[in-house]
Amino acid sequence: MLCERCAGELAAAPRVLEPGPPGIDLAVSASPFHGVARRLVHGLKFGRRLALAAVAAEAMLRVLPPRELSHAPGIEAEPAAPAVVPVPAGPWRRRWRGFDPAEELAIAVSCRAGLRLCDCLRRSSGRRQVGRRRTERLSAPPRVWLDGDAPAAVLLVDDVWTTG
Length: 164
What we know:
Structural class: alpha+beta
Strand order of the largest sheet: 1-2
Strand content: 5-15%
Number of helices: 6
Helix content: 25-40%
């Protein structure tokens, strides 16, 4: 899917690993959003090259830290495996594209990792994030809510992480 040079650049890219925003334990990105990573995301989102979701999923899974097994005293059971949850696109963007890039990534991640996919979030219509300044995106973010039961543990998947 990627040429040898681009695959090498993506594999060598520094991962981004930071404390997440409120409610998120850890935020992880396979690469800063430039170079081959930017071209890959743009090919998926704007070029409708859905096969790139598999390439991105492989990169994402390569940089995820190994799941820590923490046991409470006297409890021998392993914590529940996380469910993969896509951050939904706005309804208009999904209709316009005919697909949701984050959902395509989440499907690819769940298949490769052997984790359950849980489509439990919904998003209201709102202003597009692309082209807005960071301060605007932070002051008026899209509204996302839980629709149904929340999994006990979640691997939240989005196509681009810019504002947290």
